[in-house]
Design a protein that fits this description.
The chain has about 325 residues and is mainly α. It has 14 helices and 2 strands. Strands 1-2 form a two-stranded parallel sheet.
């Protein structure tokens, strides 16, 4: 059952994301990368989980009914996505790329994969380290025990006396983990602290791979040198709770870790695109996903701030004064795409 759960976590987001990417690039011939598809599909699954979470909280639906809606919704989405992806694949097989097609030796990719495999084994097999202030596992188990969402305090097992903060109540990450683990004989602690940590770690490398692809194109050596550097930063930064290395290797399931490791790098890669007409839906998904999983000020978080700053910089770089200053500094007029 664990192997089947791994396959579901790998294939379902990819299939949904590939369909979304195909729709976004329907009139273009751009390659649909596996990494882009998986991240996009994962963001869609977060959105679906948040919708069901809100139904459970404000509609007072039981966890059993939410599980039925979760499985049914995923089944419908996967069937629709499969039909769309199959149609596109039959007409344009070259648009789906899993492995790099050119660029040099596979020594560096092999070394990078070895480092990632070592980290995966380390994260999955080591005893979980409790993140400061995190009660995700306790919350998940309280959901399972009461067959409902936020019916009791996960720390005391008693009903809430003074209620909960509305911003905290709409965070749907514990419900998403509960729905993912429902139907599988997996302990809540293992699911959250080990299995989901590996999933988030994989998503982080996919997001950084997208940045490397935008910066270096098909240059295999430079792309994987950047990824190896990221892996080394994760290894060297696991000693303090405020570093991304600790978040990647010890608390990847936490909402702030998902934001810092996956959402922010992915949003950055989207902002680096020259044409935002096909990427703005994924930008919106990043902003909404952060609002769903991470405590932020009224839902407006770091992803929105990052994209706003990048949009402002793009406007400034297109302005006349900037171009004149650039021509004086570099001796030529800056070319705009």
């Amino acid at each position: 059952m664990i192997i089947f759960l791994w396959l579901m976590l790998a294939l379902v987001p990819w299939l949904i994301g590939a369909a979304v990417q195909a729709v976004l690039h329907w009139k273009t011939s751009e390659v649909i990368h596996m990494t882009d598809s998986w991240i996009t599909g994962s963001l869609c699954c977060i959105g679906l989980g948040e919708a069901l979470h809100l139904l459970g909280v404000f509609g007072h639906l039981s966890l059993g009914r939410l599980h039925i809606l979760w499985c049914g919704s995923l089944a419908v989405l996967c069937l629709l996505a499969l039909a769309l992806v199959t149609g596109v694949w039959l007409k344009h097989r070259e648009r789906f790329r899993i492995l790099p097609q050119k660029g040099g030796s596979f020594v560096l990719p092999g070394f990078f994969l070895l480092m990632v495999l070592t980290q995966v084994v380390y994260v999955y097999c080591m005893p979980a380290i409790t993140a400061p202030g995190d009660i995700t596992v306790e919350t998940l188990r309280s959901f399972q025990a009461t067959d409902g969402i936020y019916l009791v305090n996960p720390l005391t097992g008693q009903a809430y006396v003074q209620g909960m903060s509305m911003r905290y109540k709409i965070l749907g990450l514990p419900t998403l983990y509960t729905l993912i683990g429902s139907g599988f004989p997996v302990d809540g602690g293992v699911l959250v602290q080990n299995l989901m940590s590996v999933v988030v770690l994989a998503g982080a490398y996919m997001a950084y791979y997208r940045i490397a692809r935008l910066l270096f194109g098909d240059d295999l050596r430079k792309k994987y040198l950047l990824l190896i550097l990221v892996a080394m930063v994760f290894w060297c930064g696991e000693g303090a709770v405020w570093l991304d290395g600790y978040a990647a290797l010890h608390s990847a399931w936490v909402g702030t870790s998902i934001r810092n490791l996956v959402l922010l790098p992915y949003a950055l890669s989207l902002g680096l695109e020259k044409d935002w007409r096909h990427t703005w839906p994924c930008m919106v998904l990043c902003v909404m996903a952060e609002a769903c999983v991470c405590w932020t000020f009224n839902g407006l978080g770091m992803c929105l701030l990052l994209l706003a700053v990048m949009a402002a910089l793009d406007k400034v770089s297109a302005s006349g004064p900037y171009r004149r200053l650039s021509s004086r500094i570099f001796g030529r007029e800056e070319e705009r795409p």
